[in-house]
Amino acid sequence: MNKIQTDTNIQFEGEPNKNGPLDFLGYPPCFLKDVFREGLNGVRDTYREETGIGLKSNIPPYCSNDPENIYSDIWKTSNIEDFPNTVASDGFDDLFRKKFIEKLVSKGYFKSVWNTALNEPFEKAGFRDPDGWYTVYAVIPFILFIDKNKLDGLPVPKRWSDLLEPDFRNKVIVCGVEGHPVDVPLLYLYKEHGEVGLRRLAANTRAIWHAAQIARTAGSSNPSGAAVYIQSLFFAQCCPRTDATSIVWPEDGAYTSPLYLLVKESRMKEMAVVTNYITGPELGHKCTQAGFLSLNPYVGNSLPENASFKWLGWDYIKSHDLVEMREHVKTIFISELEKTRKGGKQ
User: Fold this and answer.
1) Range scoring the smallest mean pLDDT among 54-63, 69-78, 97-106, 319-328
2) Residue 65: pLDDT band with limits 50, 70, 90
């Protein structure tokens, strides 16, 4: 999963194949880590007081790669006994690899913890795994973030496909870091418009910026900014220049990146204290405060009227290797962006 393992204040005992697997391995998004860790510390302490049993858990605190992370290749195991009893992760990461799905997920070792209706827009969009394997508990939404002063008479885009039109040449900035755009919007674009769509977006892209840089620049007089940013909702809401900017929720739905659980069916009862917290309203409300949206039906996400969401779809997810696809779409996009910058093929 390409994450860091290091000391945390969550109890961590043993290594793979020593003293059994971890009870819980958690990779929440960076901006949710502290809240996530604090809540699970409380859950762990209460569980220990009530049962006398400690949970073997690990939540790496950082957001970068570490080649010494003993859990980074946990997806490669073919033995379910080596796998943590519960894993919380985010994005279309290693646990969406086709090989992992074939080796462990499709064998029925994991079970969704949802036994109620989901928050209505997410139920409608198909976020519930029909096979009952994955549990999506929240999402990171991506929207269109507009700098009104840089549209230069262009109509405000209303759908994702609007950004593929020649009128938006050099008018778009995609969140990410130089050479590495955030892959989630590209995955959805590729599914719906193929390589042609990726190339058309790249031809219209002015730059790839960190989401924080977008928040600092949008709506300002900085000439390096763009008219339209593909941005996460959280960072769009961080921009202080609300008079000069606007958040446009695409008519065809916000792109979404999942926060999800994989829970061993054989250990669901023991892990309920953890999974009930992660999918429950307390963490759900905290998710909304951090720019994420909860699937818990008792959490109000304060969405715009008629807001909808795009989801890749479970059939699509399980029939493709999304990790390989992430690299594929980024390679196509960057290649075309470099051609555009050199004044080559448009």
Assistant:
1) 54-63
2) low
pTM, entire model: 0.90
Domains and CATH numbers, the chain: 24-139+256-312 (3.40.190.10), 142-254+327-341 (3.40.190.10)
CA atoms 31, 36, 39, 41: torsion sign: negative
Q: Of 56, 137, 37, whose CA–CA distance to 90 is shortest?
A: 137
DSSP string covering 229-298, please?
EEEEHHHHHH-S-TTTEEEE--TT-BEEEEEEEEEBGGGHHHHHHHHHHHHSHHHHHHHHHTT-EE--TT
Picking from 104, 22, 75, 86, the residue whose alpha carbon sits closest to that of residue 263 is 86
User: By CB neighbour count within 10 A (0-12 exposed, 13-18 middle, 19+ buried), where does 153 fall?
Assistant: exposed
- For 263-275, the pLDDT digits (tens) are 999 999 999 999 9
Vertex 314, ends 139 and 36: CA angle to 5°?
25
Element (H, E) at 134: strand 134-147
Whether 318 has a pLDDT exceeding 90, the answer reads yes
